[in-house]
Amino acid sequence: MVTDIPYDGSDFYCELAIPHPERLDVVHDSARVLAFHHTRPYWAVHVVVVPTRHIGSLTSVSAADEADIRELLGVVQAIAKDVESEYGAAAVLTNLGAYQDSKHVHVHVHSGGRLA
Ligand SMILES: [Zn+2]
Known about the structure:
By secondary structure, the chain is α+β, with helices and mostly antiparallel strands. The protein has helices spanning 12-17, 66-87, and strands spanning 25-29, 33-37, 43-51, 91-93, 107-114. The chain has a single domain (12-114), classed as HIT family, subunit A, CATH 3.30.428. The two termini are 17 Å apart. Zinc ion binds at residues 11, 13-14, 54, 104.
């Protein structure tokens, strides 16, 4: 179990998560994509998947990001498949605009009840 990592900036992923995966409960770590159990989970099962290269959000993705987003979606699919298989249900979510706390595209894969 990873303890909460204090952070109040605007890009937790570039500033803390991607440079320091050893501080995380990592599910997938490749050159283009990092996935880990959320450090402040909202749901009983809560994995977050991010590109290791900075991309602001789903709505700012461009053709130049294709390789990163293609691999990201493959990792999201594999993790969602595992969660669905193990728990019988999963949801995949990405926030935008004011709903997006960290301004680096990230996809939540979750299952189970809300923790907070
Ligand atoms: Zn970033």
